[in-house]
Amino acid sequence: MKTQLLIGVLLLTFATPISWSQNALSLEECIDIAISRNHEIMASKLQTKEAEIDLRSQKRERLPSLQISANNSLNTSYDPKYDEVGNLEYAHANKYTNQGSIDFSLPLWVEATNPNLTRALKLNAEASKANLKHTEKQIKLTVTDKFYAVVIA
């Protein structure tokens, strides 16, 4: 019993530091982790996507649109009628209704409402991309500075 207890204590003593040891991270791994977990980068990516969506939707307003709809309905009714003898009978009546519509619109000149809107949205998308790249560069510089400060210390 004492031997098993001694072996257990020795195993825990020598095995624990090995299992708790951590691998050293390289500079590239530190930068990747910092960029993937940074909230400013995530916000910049969302702003870039939003700007691209706005630009695409503005460009799509120039395209023609076609809408087709069809409605079909059936109404059944039973109307009470009295025959010649005075007996009550119900007359069966069906009413069918069909409706259809086609709507086609072709914008002739969308730019007349706001001629600079498409250009402004395009510049906004480019600015969002540039902001994202600038933020990533700033994070890379900060992580590199901190990394070498730890290595030198």
- How is the main sheet built? 2 strands, antiparallel
Poorly predicted regions = none
> Mean pLDDT score, rounded?
80
Per DSSP E runs of 2 or more residues, the count of β-strands stands at 2
The H-and-E topology, N to C, reads as HHHEEH
Number of helices: 4
The assigned structural class equals alpha+beta
Strand order of the largest sheet: 1-2
- Terminal residue distance: 48 Å
Radius of gyration (CA) equals: 37 Å
Strand content: 15-25%
The rough form would be described as elongated
| Helicity range | 55-70%
Explain what this protein looks like in three dimensions.
The structure is a single chain. With 153 residues, the chain is an alpha+beta fold. 58% of the residues lie in helices and 24% in strands. It contains four helices and two strands. Strands 1-2 form a two-stranded antiparallel sheet. A hairpin with a 5-residue loop joins strand 1 and strand 2 (88-105). The longest helix is centred in the last third of the chain and has 36 residues, at 117-152. The chain is elongated.
